[in-house]
Amino acid sequence: MAGPISRKRRRRVGKRLAPLLFLAPFALLFIAFLIAPMLYALNLAVYKTTVVAGTKFVGADNFVRALGDPKFWQGVVVLLKFAVIQIPGMVAIALLIALILDSGTVYAKSFFRISLFLPYAVPAVIATLIWGYLYGPAFGPFTQLANALGLPAPNFLGPNTILPSIANIANWEYTGYQMIIYYAALQAIPMDLEEAASMDGASSFTYALRVKLPLIAPMVIVTIIFSIIGSLQLFSEPYLLRNLAPLSITNSYTPNYYAYTLAFANQQYNYSAAMSFVLGAVTAVISYAFMLLVNRRGNA
To answer: How far apart are CA 208 and CA 34, in angstroms?
Structure first.
């Protein structure tokens, strides 16, 4: 009897350990590349290093200083404006394309899906460099075309146009990604609903508006939340465009850019780390406020 009992015990232990073994690679990478850097940054944030006094523990002083820094809040306002400009257009275009592809009236859907998704595969740095060339006030193709036609050259990088120009880059990068998510959600809708709607005399437009959109609304809300988080972390585009638009983009244009400048230009690593945590808290508050607003409207 000892043999079968021991085998049963080994099977039970194996069943308990199997999930842990499968989770172990992710857990190790998660700890190594997220938890450990965050703990290190938190350790930096509670200290202050000066030439005279050296490194000393200051507790929450750096966090309080970041909360009272006007440059930080100016950057947050810029990001909120960016989100208002960029997210609605991206979501609307992605939804429209996904609905058109799902309607069954488009030929070569695979080709269009891949073509629209390809910009997402381009790294943000490369995408910004491409659009920086297109926006170029001296050598860009839009400027050359305007000069050839005898028209004033468009100023895509001016103080009043730089934010829509950056939003356009973000839309070019991420609209295809959002479209794929919406298209996958639409494909999961049972065909029986469309047949029932057509029997009731509903047109394709009415079916899309009254049935499809409400069914994928939770997915749309999730993507908007992720877009809000991504917008509040904007860094690459302003950083790379600054040489082309020094009058429009300062080194504190966004909080991430400001934190980068503090750390690597001013050697204020402690204050920069604290500012990063404050930005994370602001992002969490804004995301939660959006979720709360959506839930209240849904309940109403």
So the answer is: 41
CA end-to-end span of the chain? 64
Tell me the per-residue pLDDT of 192-211, one tens digit each, with 9 for 90 and over.
887 787 777 778 888 888 88
E-only strand ranges, 170-268:
none
Please check the confidence at residue 1 and state whether its pLDDT lies above 50.
Answer: no
pLDDT average, residue stretch 202-221: 86
Locate the domains of the chain by residue range. 7-57, 60-298
Residue (of 162, 128, 129, 156) closest to 253 by Cα position: 162
Residue 189 in contact with residue 98, Cβ under 8 Å? no
Taking 70 as the threshold, does the pLDDT of residue 99 lie above it? yes
Measured from the Cβ of residue 138, the count of other Cβ atoms closer than 10 Å reads 8
Digit-coded pLDDT (tens) for 113-144: 888 899 999 999 999 999 999 998 888 898 88
Residue 205 to residues 32, 133, 197, 296: CA-CA distances in angstroms?
Answer: 49, 40, 11, 28
Domain made up of 60-298: CATH architecture: Orthogonal Bundle (1.10)
Any bridge partners for residue 55, and if so which? 49
Q: What is the mean pLDDT of residues 136-165?
A: 88
Cβ proximity of 259 and 276 under 8 Å: yes
- Give the C-alpha distances (Å, rounded to integers) separating 216 from 14, 117, 208, 210: 40, 20, 11, 11
For the chain, the average pLDDT equals 88
Q: Are 251 and 74 in contact (CB under 8 A)?
A: no
DSSP state of 154: P
The answer for residues whose C-beta is within 8 angstroms of residue 237's C-beta and 6 or more apart is 124, 128, 166, 169, 170
Is the whole model's pTM more than 0.90, yes or no? no
pLDDT(48) > 50: yes
**Nearest by Cα to 253 from 75, 82, 66:** 75
- CA neighbours closer than 13 Å in the CB half-sphere of residue 120: 15
